[in-house]
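To: structure subgroup
Subject: Chain for Friday's discussion

All,

I'm putting the inputs and outputs inline so they're searchable in the archive.
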Amino acid sequence: MPTRTTTAVTHYHVQKTRRAKFIEDWRANHRDVVPADDVVLQDSARGSQIGVYVGADGDRPTRTMDALVHEFAPGARTTVHRHSWDAMVFVVAGWGWTEIDGERIDWGPGDSLHLPAWAWHRSGNDGSETARYLTFSSEPLMDTMGMSVLEDAGDAAVESLPGRPAYTPGFPGDDPYARRTRRIAREQESRRSGRLHTSWDDLEMLNTPRGTRTTFLLDRAIGYQASGITMAMFEIGPGRGQSMHRHPGEAWLYVVEGSGHSYMGTEPEGGEEHPWKKGDLIVVDHFLWHQHFNDDPEKTAKVVRIHMFDSLLETMRALADPLVLFEEPPEHIRDKQAGDPQSITWPTLERPTWP
């Protein structure tokens, strides 16, 4: 007997209710600043302690990225696991190591790492002090598409575990299927040959017209092949501010050193100011005008900025063209807001400390 499935309400009402709930949930869980003191560390089955700045596993769900903190006691060694998303690591304290597909990388405060999708990895601390790092991952975006997969292999040796998913090198010919196999093969070859580590000692900070000096930590411009997350660090001079701007997609800013406040609003004037300090995470929502200020008259402030650029912003740029998706004031206003970064006496770049 044939059957029919019905929702008992129209498609229109189902979609309208679903969209309204999405926005309601988003607004209920949105944070402008997540204080470090609000992040609770808990023991985990991996052998480390983990806390959540932003993410569903910490009751602060988001749709694009998550932000977690991990601590490793002296002598700690995590289980080896892999997942279908990639993650960025920024070390804030201690000295330790991470194995990525069997390759050991030693790290210290201020270092950055890329954990590629499907790469087996584990971390450890052979030192005498607690080590601490943050991870920023694309897991929420993968979860939205139903493609979040995690596999934990305990203490197994990496050489005994299966490698990353196999792919076909590509078929000859000019038909759509042959083109697809070759395109995907080229992409995988590129993804699997990207850079994995940036040492703090190799960073070079350069002045920008926006009143700061900056450097890339993890980005395709310096050899990384990530899923779209980019990570950079900028430094604000004593008592100075970065020029105002706005863009779609969230921008997250982890405060490495210093204290200050951020302006955020739907217009260049009339918004709200949000104070922040070392260890906090600033969450800049979609297409808000924002400007970051260093309130210390003597010391600089360092902030790590994380953005889902390639996979989110570039897609939105194509969909929304010809709308401007990165906007800042005219140059004469921008330069007045930012001041001349050449006039700042920048200190020697020193590795971050915690707390």
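Points worth raising on Friday:
The mean pLDDT is 89.
The longest strand covers residues 229-236.

D.
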